Design the sequence.
């Protein structure tokens, strides 16, 4: 699709777009918009994502140790986003050069693999944070057992390895092909394997997006009910409002970045498989390509989550940016978006999360 319109003749031909399959229809797609939309959007995500995530990693490593469970999840989330945005310059070049990939088949496979690795690791790390918050608010005593940093670190390692292992077939599906002097970097696969790719992609989406999304919604629904439920003799603390704001921010990330991409991609794949008419294919094609940059935008929105909901993180960042003398490294438990001693059904003493059993105060929240 190096020209303004890419024809899809009556025989199966490879498509140049990530997510594009092949279709036995005589259609013309006017895709000139993508050669502006995708390079510009990916360049913006690269600049903002690197500018926000690199300082976040530096702050976590050098100024916010030791970590608690929430900080561990957030560090791995920032690491996943950073690895992804570092691959974006190659895609910026690819679409700016009108679908020409001069970097070799191996790098094409790796860049496409990295997109889905980051996407689903981000979903799972946000889900881990959601479950950890749910335990801290609704089951604080159980959270003391399951919310330890060591277990959080092992869970993060498992997320990296499980997602990577499940995405290995993607390295075999993704390939490059030549059209004259243009080398295309596909995100799907060869025409004869497209049916198998859709089955694989659907299974991965259900496992790493559908199930985590459902778990996140259930956790936040139960949290919201607990936070809104009045407790005898309890004033409404500001920490509850901050927790509700956190719920809103995370759900916004899901609604803006993850849900539109997966819905439009599924419709797009199905339209190709079912050989929908050209008008429908054109509409779905445009909508899908418009939502693709939104999936990458989670690399920019995740750091905003830390800024909006982590008071200690925000204060430490402002202090470092302002050039004032840094404080001694603070325990990451003070950074946690939901602190057990603040957000649970008891009022806890100000002790680190892993230093022992908390002591319930006389007043309930």
Sequence:
């Amino acid at each position: 699709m190096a020209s303004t319109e890419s024809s899809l003749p009556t025989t199966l031909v490879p498509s140049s777009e990530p997510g594009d399959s092949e279709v036995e229809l005589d259609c013309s797609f006017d895709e000139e918009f993508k050669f502006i939309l995708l390079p510009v959007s990916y360049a913006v995500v690269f600049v903002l994502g690197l500018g926000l995530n690199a300082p976040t990693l530096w702050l976590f490593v050098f100024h916010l140790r030791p970590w608690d469970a929430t900080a561990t999840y957030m560090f791995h989330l920032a690491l996943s986003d950073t690895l992804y945005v570092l691959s974006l310059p190659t895609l910026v070049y690819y679409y700016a050069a009108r679908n020409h990939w001069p970097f070799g088949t191996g790098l094409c496979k790796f860049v496409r693999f990295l997109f889905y690795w980051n996407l689903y690791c981000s979903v799972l790390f946000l889900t881990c944070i959601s479950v950890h918050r749910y335990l801290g608010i609704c089951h604080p005593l159980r959270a003391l057992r399951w919310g330890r940093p060591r277990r959080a670190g092992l869970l993060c390692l498992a997320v990296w390895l499980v997602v990577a292992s499940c995405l290995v077939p993607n390295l075999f599906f993704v390939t490059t092909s030549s059209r004259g002097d243009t080398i295309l970097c596909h995100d799907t696969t060869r025409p004869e394997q497209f049916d198998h790719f859709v089955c694989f992609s659907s299974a991965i989406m259900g496992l790493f997006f559908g199930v985590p999304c459902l778990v996140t919604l259930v956790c936040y629904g139960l949290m919201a009910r607990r936070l809104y439920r009045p407790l005898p003799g309890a004033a409404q603390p500001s920490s509850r409002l901050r927790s509700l704001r956190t719920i809103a921010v995370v759900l916004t990330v899901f609604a803006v970045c993850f849900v539109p991409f997966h819905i439009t991609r599924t419709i797009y794949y199905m339209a190709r498989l079912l050989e929908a008419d050209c008008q429908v294919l054109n509409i779905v094609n445009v909508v899908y390509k418009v939502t693709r940059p939104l999936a990458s935008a989670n690399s920019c929105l995740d750091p905003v989550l830390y800024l909006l909901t982590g008071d200690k993180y925000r204060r430490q960042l402002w202090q470092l940016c302002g050039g004032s003398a840094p404080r001694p490294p603070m325990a990451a438990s003070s950074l946690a978006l939901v602190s057990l001693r603040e957000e649970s059904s008891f009022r806890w003493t100000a002790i680190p999360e892993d230093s022992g059993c908390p002591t319930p105060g006389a007043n309930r929240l």
Notes: Strands lie at 5-8, 27-30, 176-179, 182-185. The longest helix spans residues 238-273.
